[in-house]
């Protein structure tokens, strides 16, 4: 109730809730000052100078939004640029009324008193630009494109953390301890499926954990090592985990075992995969929803949040191994995923 009362008092004032009333008050004060201090001819020149600066400021503001929109376009074709320009200048009727009024006043004065108008702008341009900015803040109504841009920007600030929440609760916790999610004691946990794989294939997994790879480029190959890495190959798949979930009957959860060559020594076997939500960030960058810098920032937020979520869950903490790494070397070459997995396994075994 207190918040409602504060909100009502705020709306009743002359603040942001009533910008048009504030603007009308400024216009009246400005007009009275001119009437009592300036001759009629100079009043017209002053009004036209202010109208011209308002027009320039509004046009400049929309051009800035247009440039931002063009940077977000995936393909800067002529059609795409035209659509962006149309959306950028699709303004409310009140805004167009202000623009047309300013244009007419400026045109008439320039036509009759061009020298006086330019002289006034040179002497008092800073004052007119200040008035123009105040006018824009008071009467401006955001266009649909501006609203979408602002909402998209705010939404992208937390996309990394949101992806981490979804990945942890919709996949990792289900994978490591399915019985706790669906209350079916017949389902095998990740540890039990690993043990069954070892017995069925007569191999020993070097690390009894699911290794989740998180490359900083946010790109993950469809199958690890398909890009020419000869030291890694698919060994087999563990038994599928089938859970009826969210309307899908017996949804399948499949995990792949990889064989990592280890020189002349015995190869390492491990269960590994990439963190698939990072592909979402990669797709968002490619379609223009995120810049390269925003993608890196959201990738870092994703890793930090996912690490926190995994560490606070007992089943995930003991069976999930998160590996954040730079998949590009200093000379710009891709780092083989086999070397990453080999180093991780050796570290887990205490060999390094």
From TrEMBL:
Gene3D superfamilies: Stimulator of interferon genes protein. It holds the Pfam family STING_LBD. This is Transmembrane protein 173. Residues 159-345 form the STING ligand-binding domain. GO terms for cellular component: autophagosome; endoplasmic reticulum membrane. One of its GO terms (biological process) is autophagosome assembly. It comes from Rhipicephalus appendiculatus (Brown ear tick). It comes from the Eukaryota.
